[in-house]
Write a structure and sequence with these properties.
By secondary structure, the protein is mostly helical. It has a domain of 115 residues. Helix 4 crosses helix 6, helix 6 packs antiparallel against helix 7 and helix 7 packs across helix 8. The longest helix is centred in the first third of the chain and has 30 residues.
Amino acid sequence: MTKLIIILLSAVFINNYVLSRFLGICPFLGVSKKLNAATGMSLAVIFVMMLATAATWPIQMYLLNPNNLGYLQTIVFILVIAALVQLVEIVLKRYIPSLHKSLGVYLPLITTNCAVLGVTILNIDEGYTFVEAMVNSLGSGLGFFLAMVMFSGVRSKLEGADIPKAFQGLPITLVAASITSLSFMGFGGVIENLFA
């Protein structure tokens, strides 16, 4: 149980896929302007991460590895993730059209979101069991959510700030993102020491 807690908290704070591993930057920068869109995108990413792990881990362990087809991992995982994203898009379009419209082009981009693919591949590379992989995926999704919501707040404060002309637009966004990521560096070593 302790290992699962460490995996969860580490995925949220220490190994945050956006702020420490720099995966999933496209939606992080593109959808974080408004809190509603950031929250919706994050929930969709959590859902896809969990489903993708639930589908890809058994495929890797029971189909690819036993048949020496591990070299097909990336292609198979991308196909599975693409199918799951299409499912999420259909559900959102049908049941939550306002969220579907606010996410716009970024929803289909979850298919190519390297954070989702990264989680599924790193779950295998880390040697996690199915339960550990699911916990890591949940933690990674929650970390993505935390980063998106935090950065959405930072960007809302920037809208009212007096920013020098040279820094307006993308430059100040990247500076703010780097400062936000620095805040997560302080968690390194803390989680492991809590349960030592």
